[in-house]
Amino acid sequence: MSTILEVKNLTKKFDDNEVLKDVSFELKKGETLAVIGSSGSGKSTLLRCLNHLSPPDSGQILLEGININTPETDINRVRADMGFVFQDFNLFTHLTILENVMFGPLRVRRWSKDKARQIATAEIKTVGMLDKIDSYPAQLSGGQQQRISIARALALKPKLILFDEPTSALDPELTGEVLSVMTDLAHSGMTAIVVTHEMGFARSVADKVIFIDQGLIVEQGPSKTLFSAPQHERTKLFLKNFSGLE
Known about the structure:
By secondary structure, the protein is α/β, with parallel strands linked by helices. It contains nine helices and ten strands. It has a domain at 3-92 and 165-240: Rossmann fold (3-Layer(aba) Sandwich). The strands form two sheets. A six-stranded mixed sheet has the order 6-7-8-3-9-10, with helices on both faces. A four-stranded antiparallel sheet has the order 2-1-4-5, with helices on one face. α3 crosses α4 (113-126), α3 packs parallel to α5 and α4 crosses α5 (142-155). The two termini are 33 Å apart.
């Protein structure tokens, strides 16, 4: 598999607080990478740096070999190529489900209305929500809204998708439906980076896992290896906090 994303020595500060410290990793096409760590460790900041929602201070972000962390970067193109699924859905409340998913293809990709409608309908079907295509976000459960957020990201036909704790705002009984969609996408070959507290998903679905602590990558490697035989004491301590992973 070819390398689609390479991150080299990425750093990010907020005032005097260095949130990311010399972060480096790579992702191959078709892989799912899970990013785990305690709250406040820098996981979400990492995702926001990758698509410049929060521009990094230094380092390289190579998307298919091209450094996008430069002043010449077309930010809108980067954000289209890196779909983003937020914790709190971020759907437009005044638009129907179809209109929400069509928004990116129309406004960002500048595709025709017919093409945008065709693609949006297909992606809504992918996440199992075709029966809600004319509904509004307020008429949906949190799990259904998050599935539409995933469809919206897919409709841009991105090179990879960034998931920022996509189940953290959901009740436990709604988490499963979102993880099921994400699992199907991973098995279909979608390239993704997932910030998550769902250790079962990270262990069984992700190809690779990064464990971040206080802005540093403490350990990274194949998911089965990292969960079954972590090398660092900090990783072992973190994993012991999760039931079934002692």
